[in-house]
Amino acid sequence: MVGxxxxxxxEVERMKKVNNEKHESRNKNILIGALLAVILIMGVGYAAFxxxxxxxxxxxxxxxxxxxxxxxxxxxxxxxxxxxPYAAGTAEDGTKLVNSTTAQFKAxxxxxxxxxxxxxxxxxxxxxxxxxxxxxxxxGNEAAPISYSYTGINEGDPLNASGNxxxxxxxxxxxxxxxxxxxxxxxxxxxxxxxxxxA
Length: 199
What we know:
Elements: H1 2-49, E1 67-78, E2 82-83, E3 107-108, E4 115-124, E5 130-139, E6 146-151, E7 158-159, E8 164-173, E9 188-196
Antiparallel strand pairs: 1-4, 2-3, 4-8, 5-7, 5-9, 6-8
């Protein structure tokens, strides 16, 4: 009887052990399956977050800055003052009367009070609005009885894109002169500096 009881206890213990091992094995399998699922999800997530993004673009500058002198012509005189026309639109030194940045003229004044007026045209051939930044007006010999003046242009004057403007330069023989002066020539240099409007 004792032997049978011992055998039954042994069988019960053995069955418990087998059941525990099966249970542990099943738990391990579940755990392994869960870990594999997590790793798979992480792998998919990592692949999603590792996508490469590429942006291609091109930029270009389409603005054009082009302010030019385009014409100068004699538009008036007083007394016997006259414009001295240059042959074929060139000055005595062979340079053009007007190029993009320079305009030239020459006047002949015979009597006190004579004057000649020139109209100068400036064009904005670009697509950027401009304005007059500064003007310098320098006479070569202020002691000469010949003077220069300008009207129609001032610092800050606008010159919009594709627009044009004109101003005048006048050369005058001093009307107070009563005898032949020793100095009979005078020059002038007028520089107009255009800048981008609002800059």
